[in-house]
Amino acid sequence: MKNLLLISIAFLCLKSHSQKQSFPANVVFNNGIMASSKNSQDALNNYTIWKTNFVEACSNGRYRIKFDNPSETVSEGIGYGMLLSVYAADKTLFDGLWLYYKDNVNSNGVMNWKINGCSGINGPNGATDAELDAAFALIVADFQWASTGTINYKNDAKTLIAVIKTHEVEANTFVLKPGDQFGGSQITNPSYFSPAYYRAFGNFTNDSTFWNAVAAKSYTVINNNLTQNNAAGGLVSDWCQGSGAYSPDAGGYKNAGKTYNYDAARTPWRIAVDYLWYGNADAKTYAKKSSDFVRVNLGGSANIKDGYNQDGTLNGQWHNATFVGAFACAAMAGENQAHLDASYNDLNGLNEPKSYFNQTLKTLYMFLLTGNFYLPQNATLANSDFELEKATVTLYPNPSADRFTVFAPEKSTISVISPQGKIISELKTTSENTEINLASYSSGLYLIKITDGNKSITKKVILK
């Protein structure tokens, strides 16, 4: 993620202390390709449409997202809204959505999945995708605005991640449950799988062994589902068992959960993120299968419809953003620039401003496609993540060929110690991000010591 870090650092000097990353971020991912015509204005235009049509103020600074039935709110929509608003640097909306979420939680601490307008439970208990999106959005909020104000984003993120671990991951199997009150090996939803988030959760909470296992299980379930059902490309089913087989518990869902429909359609987007952020090989393999299905089997993005049987035969009829955009995200790992460019332009040209699902997902997809759905610095896979007083200190990348970035409290002292034990550099930080340039020094093991008041931490770094 070196390019992302350098770009993010460059933006820091343009912003006030209160906010780290304004919109647009315009990140160029270190993995995959990006559309030639990508333009953050396209993402902003869609955000404005989404916000105008689906955001509604409640009382007390709370905000909600209007569902298909505008008098209802679903937790999924709150999670999507938190992602969009935090990346758009829209703090007022983000805070209002998170407060709404917390106003409507059940005894496990997850939001009841459907609410009547601003209050009143219409559908009890959680939907796991909402928790995953909300928890990751809180990590981004901690990066954006720190956690010293009225909302402690960092503590709230850690609390929600712990709730997900306890109530929404099946014990001992690492299968993601679709809700806090049901599912696991008997029934799960592949479109909820968010392995990139899991890696960030593990780093953020110092629990990577657990969350990496959840990520690995996601690919096991997906690949088993594709293999057992002779799927074309990456056409996973909406619902399945942890074994990948169809679930007898999915009878109440569309086509008994056996087809690639409005649940499964989101899977290429969620999995593509794991490749773009982390370069995960399983993610690339899946995303390329999904992209090649459109490019080769369908003859291009313009021929996408809203539903397929797993063998690739058509069962839908509409050409919309939910399906087009997820496949466009997959094309970022598909290695075919012309196909990605056509997919981006196809998505950008779709106009469904009053459709909750299509417009919301289109906006999320456009944020990723334009480099505005990025991995924040406080969630990167670093060798070190520890507490110095109340601030999180991270150091990355490690190893490095030349530069290291230290994320530490302002006015800390950073000392660099050579392999021979001599202090070769010492400086006082003026911001939370400090770049240490060792390009002129020989490769080897160096020590970087961060001192803040009476506390200090020394970490090893490797200069390649």
From TrEMBL:
Gene Ontology MF terms in the entry: cellulase activity
GO BP terms: cellulose catabolic process
Recorded catalytic activity of this chain's protein: Endohydrolysis of (1->4)-beta-D-glucosidic linkages in cellulose, lichenin and cereal beta-D-glucans
Pfam families with a match to the protein in the record: Glyco_hydro_8, Por_Secre_tail
EC number(s) reported in the record: 3.2.1.4
Domain called Secretion system C-terminal sorting: residue spans: 395-462
Alphabetic keyword roster: Carbohydrate metabolism, Cellulose degradation, Glycosidase, Hydrolase, Polysaccharide degradation, Signal
Ranges that cross the membrane: none
NCBIfam families: Por_Secre_tail (TIGR04183)
Family: Belongs to the glycosyl hydrolase 8 (cellulase D) family.
Protein name, as recorded: cellulase
Organism expressing this protein natively: Flavobacterium circumlabens
